[in-house]
Amino acid sequence: MKTEKVAGKESWVVKTPRINAAVTVQGAMMAPVRFQLPDGRDASPYYVSPWQDEDTSGIEPPVLQPLRGDFFCCPFGADNKVGDEDHLPHGEAASKDWTFLSAGETQAHGSLSLKMNYSACPGDITRELLFGRDDPHVISRSTLKGFSGGYPLGYHSNLQGGREGEWKLYTDTFDLGITCPDYTEPMIGGEYFALAPDARFSSLEKIPSRWKDPDTADCSIFPSRWGFIDLFTIYRKRSPEAPLAERLAWTVAVNRHEKYLWYTIKDASLLPATVFWWENGGRHMAPWSGRNSCLGVEETCTYFANGRRLSVAPNVVSDAGIPTAITLDPDEPRMIWSLQGVLPLENTEAPITGMSLDAQGRPVFRDGTGRELPVPVRIADFL
Question: Could you give all domains of the chain from N- to C-terminal order, each with its CATH number?
Answer without folding.
Answer: 4-382 (2.70.98.10)
